[in-house]
Amino acid sequence: MEWNQITFKLPKIDFNPTKQVVEDAFKMYRKLLFKVPTEKLPKITTTYSLTPPNQTNEFHSTTEDAAIFNVEREQYMKFIQNAINRLNGDHRAILIQSYMSKENIKDYVIYNDLGMSSRTYYREKKEAIISIANALDIAVYENEVKAG
User: Fold this and answer.
1) 60 pLDDT tier (thresholds 50, 70, 90)
2) pLDDT higher for 97 or 35?
3) Which residues are CB-neighbours of 147 under 8 A, at least 6 positions away?
4) Known InterPro entries for this protein (predicted)?
5) DSSP secondary structure, 87-122, as one string
6) For residue 45, what is the domain's CATH number?
7) What's the confidence (pLDDT) of residue 62?
């Protein structure tokens, strides 16, 4: 009996436009992050995972309009946080330090902090960007028709 091999070709990701879309998503995250009150900010643990604060049974009678306005912002931020938390540890650490911290941390500081060579760091950062683009479903593929 002969086995037929099924081949499934994934479309090839166009890295530069994908990187730009990911960076734009993180810029929006960072912008929204500065509008969130300090007590509602996610905490970054030493394992580089984002833990959103847990508020339950809060009474918002005087701020219902503001809460409704903030729902989309909170959903966007949780969407990004959940996607980050699904990545492996190195990818999470790289993306959090590169794009999600309050300070602008230089790449050489990050790869020294993580104990990586620069070559390994940049390879892992590229993989992390592709992974988060896939997790967020915002990857740009080669030969994809661009809208606009």
Assistant:
1) very low
2) 97
3) none
4) ArpU-like, DUF1492
5) S-HHHHHHHIIIIISSS---HHHHHHHTT--HHHHH
6) 1.10.10.10
7) 45
